[in-house]
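Run log, item B.
One chain of 222 residues. Sequence copied directly from the ordering sheet:
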Amino acid sequence: MNRFYILTFIIISLLNISLPSFARTQGVFTNTGIGGRSSVFGESFVAIADDASAIYWNPAGISKLTNRYNLTASYINLFSGFTGISDINYNFFSFVFSDYPWGGGISSDFLGANTIIKSNMVGTIESLHSSYAEVKISPSISSQLWKLGSVGISGNYFRIQTETPSNDLGITLGYLSHKWIIMSDEKYECWLRFGAAARNAFDTIDSPTSRYTIASTFGGGF
């Protein structure tokens, strides 16, 4: 029994890793990370995705949730107390419905700064009192594909609220394998699962003055 626990610990230590994530910017859009528990795992949570925050990390996990109804919300106050920076808040909310082999849900992200310093491309300060906000609304759907695991897709609506507001549509794609049992006994089991997600893929923002890329993240984990 002790050998089982030792081997399980070694395997988990080696496999609780995440693949490198790659991103392109501009715009923060959901790259902050949400959920206290899931944020600790980082990109490796892409392969866990077992609560309502799966709609953010990997929509393929929605159809695998044990509870039929799932709800989560988070609030982050960034740089609180720093001089010259105030009211930079990030809020996330999601509701997920899971009924084998399907799952669906919707989430909303809001990042806002009421008072920021605005500068141009060369660094010249243009305003000491400028506001900025990002909004993302994502309806999602997921399905289990028998022995192939599960897949998920989210449709994303983006909006950047500034002096010249801009908005666009995009998608998030996810895959989550079934559990591979490595070893088990009467009480415990050791298993491995792989997940991958392309968040905010193929998204750009339409603006009256420019067209630029939203931050997109491609990552995976065991």
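Observations after the first pass:
- DSSP finds three helices and 13 strands in the chain.
- The two ends are 25 Å apart (CA to CA).
Flagged for discussion on Thursday.
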